[in-house]
Amino acid sequence: MLTDEEARESVIIALDCDRDTAIDLATRLQGKARWVKVGMTLFYAEGPSIVREMRDRGFKVFLDLKLHDIPFQVRGAARSASLTGADLLSIHGMGSSEMVRQARAGVEDAAGERGGDRTRLVAISVLTSMDQDALAEIGIDVPVEREVERLAGMSVGAGADGIVCSPQEAAQMRELLGPKALIVTPGVRPKGAAVGDQKRIATPASAIGAGASMLVIGRPITQADDPVEAYEAVVRELCEA
Length: 241
Known about the structure:
This protein is 49% helix and 16% strand. It is built from 12 helices and 8 strands. An 8-stranded parallel β-barrel has the order 1-2-3-4-5-6-7-8, surrounded by 9 helices. 44% of the residues are buried. GO terms for molecular function: orotidine-5'-phosphate decarboxylase activity.
């Protein structure tokens, strides 16, 4: 069971939408939600200003850009992303240990320039939209959970603060990475919510119970008739579980 404050710190609302919708949701959720996710759809349309605007409204921001490029480029991109004020940034674990190390150097560069806390890094393991068949299609023939374990160990060993994985791997990752690692889980669906394009899912309470640190929840909240009540229902579930 979580306290109300712990539950609110555990839920990241995914603003995978246009600016007007994002601002409307932020206005309605301001003072209630603690975290929002700015992903590629919103960031590529609006640029760094949208991160600053969410920060100005009092939100912590998970900038979900899934950086994946040569190490030199990723260091520069991580620095630039961190300078927006993002609290959390995603990179791809498949980019190699050197890429992860350079991403860490990039956010440390930014912290030295702007002062304050360093942007934390989480490495994508296997996307929650992928299943065993999807992995095989790109030439990875090991079980999903083994690939997640391999990428998680490598990424955290190279300087990431944690990983992004499905709720189904959360318990395994908590055991592997220890109590301090960030384990961020998309693919979270409250009871009765549509599955959508996610393949490896769980409810909020079961994901936290398995060891997740933070839950990324988008459409079940953002497309609800009453997004505030949908968010509060998730908080209540986490407090009552």
